[in-house]
Amino acid sequence: MNDHPSDVEPTQTRQTETSSTGDLRKKAKVRSKKAASKKQKADDKKSVPQTLHPTPYTLHFLPIGKIVAAQGMKGEVRVYPESDFPERFLEPGTRWLVRSPSTPPEPIELIRGRYLDGKGLYVVQFAGVSDRTQAEALRDCPLLVQAGDRPPLEEGEFHILDLIGLEVFDQATQTLVGTVSSIIQAGNDLLEVQRVGQAADKKAPTVLIPFVEAIVPVVDLQQRRIEITPPPGLIE
Residue 87 phi/psi, 5° resolution? Predict the structure, then answer.
């Protein structure tokens, strides 16, 4: 998801780079070496539910976070993560940022990073940013990686970007329920599904479906479909 920034085009499929498993989907994203930091970040996020909607952005990049403030006087910045992969903020290498909506992403070198305990934030140092004034100039800039740079997932784990737009069917009747429009992360992940069968001049209602294996037993990315076994009253 490897093109030069000058080739960037708008798209409606921008999404944060988190993985989604659901409570009964093994929580594979909490992997051995990074389990402690991921668990802390997940706990921090639970107090502030997030709705992850696709919004216009770029075709060739994945947003992984947003620079929210300067940290100290030596050019470090605080980053609010939109990724479940700590290596995005800890491992040195090239990242990309957008200074304004009218400018394409530009490369910036991450030198080092650390997790800020209790804040749900990372503190990172970029090459060429050596004082607070330079750091403040990066406030509110989205931080990205090239779209082809996607960490591998384990069984039962999905990139949220891959779930957006999937059609949702009732497994028992094979009736189309709607289309996944966003993901809400608040404890257990919830699929926000836009219902079908509404008049063209009316906004279609949405329904929230817990993303747990008991209710969502089938996620078929190749066929672009999800099958659900909703309990009575869930989608009525």
Answer: -60, -20
d(CA 91, CA 86): 8
44: helix, coil or strand?
A: helix
Reported as type and span, the H/E element at residue 48 is none
CA angle 168, 169, 174 (to 5 degrees): 165
Give the H or E element holding residue 233: none
The answer to whether 204 and 198 are in contact (CB under 8 A) is yes
**How confident is the model over 118-132, as pLDDT tens digits?**
889 999 999 999 999
C-alpha closest to that of 3 among 191, 149, 208: 149
AA letter at 8: V
Condensed to tens digits (0 to 9), the pLDDT of residues 53-93 reads: 444 455 688 889 999 999 999 999 999 998 888 999 999 99
Alpha-carbon distance of 155 to 164, in angstroms, equals: 19
Rounded Cα distance between 198 and 22, Å, is 29
Asked if 21 and 29 count as a contact pair (C-beta separation under 8 A), the reply is: yes
Does pTM surpass 0.90? no
Give the C-alpha distances (Å, rounded to integers) separating 231 from 16, 170, 215.
29, 11, 8
